[in-house]
Prior knowledge:
This protein starts with a helix and ends with a helix. The chain has 6 helices and 5 strands; from the N terminus they run αβββαββαααα. α3 packs across α4 and α4 (148-159) packs across α6. It has helices at residues 2-9, 67-77, 108-128, 148-159, 170-177, 180-197, and strands at residues 13-24, 27-41, 46-53, 84-90, 101-107. It has a 5-stranded mixed beta sheet with strand order 1-2-3-4-5. By secondary structure, the protein is of the alpha+beta class. β2 (27-41) and β3 form a beta hairpin.
Amino acid sequence: VRDLRAEHEAAEFHNSFVEYRISGDWNDKFYGSVDSAEWSSDGDTAILDVTDFKYGAGIAVDAERNHQLMYYAVGMLEHRSADIVRLRIVQPRAFHVDGPDRVWETTGEELTQWKTEVLIPAMARAELDLTLTPGDWCRFCPAKLACPLLSALFGASAKADASVLSNFSSQSLARNYALVAAVKHYIKALEAAVFQRL
């Protein structure tokens, strides 16, 4: 990100962020850590670059409409506005037709709309649906892939920052550990659906 930082430093106003913790007062479950971000403004136009480093060699990750990157950008936009937002995946060990450095450009306005219309309702739904209880019975449920609770658990695990686990109490760890089997049932059903489609 050094070249990217140099590009932003040429602007009138500039901030760099490394392993930056994000949060939002609209949901206490909204948090995470952004690998790297650069923000700059020339007084008229503000630009935010959010970079996520992927070391995995197996599955190449796309930058376009990547929900994890959009989530991180929403967190950055909680503290500073931006007209242009560039979301970048750097994945040097996995082959992708677009190369190891992939960028999707959007706007702060579009991300704010996604936050309002998609992210906030999804997090609220997962948090407030007390009628659904995951368990071993999820293995036989035909609606696994459409289940809002299993989808939310899978999404949370996909975006989880393992470094925060050291701050969890033993009770919180036990509660989360009890959900592992349900997430595995979702993953197995997802794999089966993808292989069938292929």
